Amino acid sequence: MLYLAIKHLHMTTAILSGIGFLIRGILVQIEHPVTQKKWMRILPHINDSILLFCAIWLAWKLRLVPGLDVWLSCKIFLLILYVTFGIFALRKGRDQKQKAGFFAMALWCYLSILAIAINRPLFLMF
């Protein structure tokens, strides 16, 4: 029962994280002032912390090992890229064009993580 609750919380926070990133990325592109609000910077960290906690708990519960479980290693690598590109897309990019490029790359990473999560059984063949 607890496993299913954590799994569903993980999936929910993953979707909310992607939707939130998409909204924030669009708002940054149109230079909307709401992106400067404190809650707009804090809320994603709360959601993503819950997401990370659930991911670690699920990996522990299922006895998954990065390096041995190829799909998990791919997700971790893509997560690092997603966070890095996201930082440049939302804050560190020099101009709107550069931010848009990093935003597109971060979205690609996010969608790839989702694709791996959905198609995980295919990775078990390797």
UniProtKB/TrEMBL annotation:
Q: Which UniProt keywords apply?
A: Membrane, Transmembrane, Transmembrane helix
What superkingdom does the record give?
Answer: Bacteria
State any GO CC term.
plasma membrane
| Organism lineage string | Bacteria, Pseudomonadati, Pseudomonadota, Gammaproteobacteria, Oceanospirillales
Ranges that cross the membrane: 6-27, 39-58, 70-90, 102-123
Protein name per UniProt = Invasion gene expression up-regulator, SirB
Q: Which Pfam families match?
A: SirB
